[in-house]
Amino acid sequence: xxxxxxxxxxxxxxxxxxxxxxxxxxxxxxxxxxxxxxxxxxxxxxxxxxxxxxxxxxxxxxxxxxxxxxxxxxxxxxxxxxxxxxxxxxxxxxxxxxxxxxxxxxxxxxxxxxxxxxxxxxxxxxxxxxxxxxxxxxxxxxxxxxxxxxxxxxxxxxxxxxxxxxxxxxxxxxxxxxxxxxxxxxxxxxxxxxxxxxxxxxxxxxxxxxxxxxxxxxxxxxxxxxxxxxxxxxxxxxxxxxxxxxxxxxxxxxxxxxxxxxxxxxxxxxxxxxxxxxxxxxxxxxxxxxxxxxxxxxxxxxxxxxxxxxxxxxxxxxxxxxxxxxxxxxxxxxxxxxxxxxxxxxxxxxxxxxxxxxxxxxxxxxxxxxxxx
Length: 373
Prior knowledge:
With about 375 residues, this protein is mainly beta. It has helices at about 85-95, 320-330, 335-350, 355-370; strands spanning about 5, 15, 55-60, 65-70, 95-100, 110-130, 135-160, 165-170, 175-185, 190-200, 205-210, 220-225, 230-240, 245-255, 260-270, 280-290, 295-305, 310-320. It has one domain (about 5-320). It is built from four helices and 18 strands. Helix 2 packs across helix 3 (about 335-350). The protein starts with a strand and ends with a helix. Pfam families: SUFBD_core. This is Fe-S cluster assembly protein SufD.
């Protein structure tokens, strides 16, 4: 497969299955300027030998079909074309893929959990395809743990009238490197709900994207991240509105603490000329808890038609409001407990959106553990 062409956008111009169609990043490119390339362990320049061990195990709902297929399976790569060099490297390098299918008009009776476990030993590459046939409904959990240098692509194909809810947890060990692209292709009147939780890893760069194949698609992308000293956690989102009367909403919030803690959030929304009636909004908030932490937040909204239902974005990064702490301390609450309550309040509305109670409790416990450090 060769170089693909897309409508012109100043933000996302090249997509290709071929690694060599993307130059090796230098760090001066807009899409790489925030990422510390030296910490990618060679994923970006072809020097990462695929000798690592990452296992994918699926605990599926009884209505769901799970297959392990070779890379020449015709279903792979149809919904998503890689948009950067690491994504293309992952597509060119994986050997086996996991394919998860929810049959037509079927509602899965419980969440399907995909356990991705890294065992170290070098770089590894992966691919997952999740397909909901028309009118199907499912909840999916992607749970990443262990240690790895890992690059992968995940395709979500949401058929007409289908509803897919995804929770993705990046809960890696402290030395892990993970670069991943999640792409959702939505059919007519399809609904996609994504919740990304990023806590662990030395460097995690997660790129969720959404495209629409017919009117009526509805995408909601939510994220929560907590960055500790020395960690680099990066989220780069793209919602590409190419058809009329679709909706998208993006809400990401993060907290940072410790020297060298670095969060990056890039939110790109493109409304093409033909996408009249689009309704979109994106929001990013960062709570900086200590000195030495840094948050980069860049919302981008590119509108190529004047006929939209709504479009906007907002971004802010700052410290805990002293007045909030004073209010709580004046009522007898110790400083550390007041700080904990403020952070809980900051994340509370997001946590309520996690569909799986066990995952919600696990994330809440992880935030508590971060605050106790």
